[in-house]
Specification:
- The chain is α+β, with helices and mostly antiparallel strands.
- It has two domains: 86 residues; 97 residues, Aminopeptidase (3-Layer(aba) Sandwich).
- Helix content is 21%, strand content 38%.
- The protein has four helices and eleven strands; from the N terminus they run αββββββαβββαβαβ.
- The strands form two sheets. Strands 1-2-3-4-11-5-10 form a seven-stranded mixed sheet, with helices on both faces.
- α3 packs across α4.
- The longest helix is centred in the C-terminal third of the chain and has 15 residues.
- The protein is globular and about 55 Å long.
- The termini are far apart.
């Protein structure tokens, strides 16, 4: 199947990021569209449907290309999000991030300023946390994690509320990309909520490329 996607780089990258081989169930590939499903860690099934008219595989949760019309009696809309990625080679000689060991400080910053963060100190997928400080105070943090597919992603990028608008997230991400390059990590992905325009502009300034725009849905119970 991977051979069928060789000339469709964005679909190929999405598949390789979200479909671990050991949890793969099935896939349907047409000339323009791609659908696949995987077993999630909690025992449910997750699927993606990419393109204009993809097959909707049976799943508890499904992510589709933005704009695909869904049966709202069957599926409840959860969120819109965008997937970005970047190669790290351009950052190889840049200033590297300060790798943080301050789990308590990171936890407090996330609890107060980014409580919906997906990754927290102590999570097993963490490669390292980066940090920025002002007068010894932790003002920005973020982590690189290794997903079950083997792909590396940014997560839980957060800036203290009273320090936002100063470009700290961009600075931290650039430094963490330099550290990733030093560690031999050649490619990094990033997911961001579609409405977070400021964050998307910041990542695009760093050099991130938009791979896909998606909507997420949850299967509803029909009475």
């Amino acid at each position: 199947m991977l051979a069928l996607l060789q000339n469709r780089a964005e679909q190929l990258e999405t598949f390789e990021t979200y479909a671990p081989a050991h949890r793969f169930i099935e896939a349907v590939v047409t000339e323009t569209d791609l659908s696949f499903s995987v077993h999630d860690e909690d025992g449910t099934i997750f699927a993606m449907a990419l393109g204009n008219q993809p097959v909707l595989l049976g799943a508890d949760r499904i992510a589709t290309s933005r704009g695909l019309v869904m049966d709202r009696d069957l599926y409840k809309h959860r969120a819109d999000w965008d997937f970005y990625s970047i190669d790290t080679d351009a950052f190889g000689g840049a200033e590297q991030a300060t790798e943080s060991k301050d789990d308590l400080g990171i936890k407090r910053l996330l609890e107060e300023h980014a409580p919906n963060s997906s990754v927290w100190p102590g999570d097993e997928e963490v490669i390292f946390w980066g940090e920025l400080r002002e007068c010894s105070e932790l003002v920005a943090t973020g982590t690189l994690v290794k997903w079950r597919t083997g792909e590396v992603m940014f997560a839980s990028i957060a800036t203290r509320s009273d320090f936002r608008g100063k470009g700290l997230a961009q600075k931290l991400v650039r430094q963490m990309l330099a550290t990733a390059a030093q560690k031999g990590i050649g490619h990094v992905g990033l997911g961001v909520f579609a409405r977070n325009i400021a964050a998307k502009k910041a990542y695009e300034k760093v050099g991130f490329k938009l791979i896909g725009e998606f909507s997420s849905y949850q299967l509803t119970t029909i009475n």
